[in-house]
Amino acid sequence: MKHWVTKQEPVEISDVERTVIDGLRQPEYCGGITEVAKGLWMRHQDMQPKKLTDYALRIGTGAVVRRLGYLLELYGIAPESELARLRDALSETYAPLDPMLPAEGKHLRRWRLQLNITPQELESVRTN
């Protein structure tokens, strides 16, 4: 979106949904998936799940679709219809939840993710 800094100078800025998607795409620039998840949870009431889903599907990066679907489901933010749209876009390959961490942990077939961060750690952002 365009934001006017002065009467003559506009700058392009990201909306909150696109910022989350960018964080899921390149978590190394945001402090990791845990920090992206924290931002998602802190601002979830200001976000539109459909817009998040649309952005993720438009980008077409499987890891983003997987990570978004998992977090939306974990936090109960999106309706089942949006989760189904994300699941329908999954391929058979797996991606790590946080690519900055070692590729270890259980595999979650539902989202084709390797959970190298525990759900409990992600749940803890709700209380901090």
Task: Give a verbal description of the structure.
The protein has 6 helices and 5 strands; from the N terminus they run E-E-H-H-H-H-H-E-E-E-H. It is mainly alpha-helical. It has one domain. The strands form 2 sheets. A 3-stranded mixed β-sheet has the order 3-5-4. Helix 3 packs antiparallel against helix 4 and helix 4 runs antiparallel to helix 5. 29% of the residues are buried.
What's the gist of this structure?
This protein has 128 residues and is mainly alpha-helical. The chain has helices spanning 16-25, 33-42, 49-59, 62-75, 80-88, 119-123; strands at 2-4, 10-12, 95-96, 107-108, 113-114. Helix 3 (49-59) packs antiparallel against helix 4 (62-75), helix 3 runs parallel beside helix 5 and helix 4 (62-75) runs antiparallel to helix 5.
Please give a handful of descriptors for the protein shown:
128 residues; mainly alpha; three-stranded mixed sheet; two-stranded antiparallel sheet; 46% helix
Using only C-alpha atoms, the radius of gyration works out to 15 Å
Mean pLDDT: 94
- Secondary-structure element order, as H and E? EEHHHHHEEEH
Strand order of the largest sheet: 3-5-4
E-strand count: 5
Number of domains: 1
Q: Give the helix tally.
A: 6
Strand content: 5-15%
Give start-end ranges of low-pLDDT stretches.
none
Largest sheet: 3 strands, mixed
Percent helix, as a range, is: 40-55%
Distance between the termini: 31 Å
Structural class: mainly alpha
Shape: globular
Secondary structure layout plus pairing:
Layout: E1 2-4, E2 10-12, H1 16-25, H2 33-42, H3 49-59, H4 62-75, H5 80-88, E3 95-96, E4 107-108, E5 113-114, H6 119-123
Parallel strand pairs: 3-5
Antiparallel strand pairs: 1-2, 4-5
Helix pairs in contact: 1-3, 3-4, 3-5, 4-5
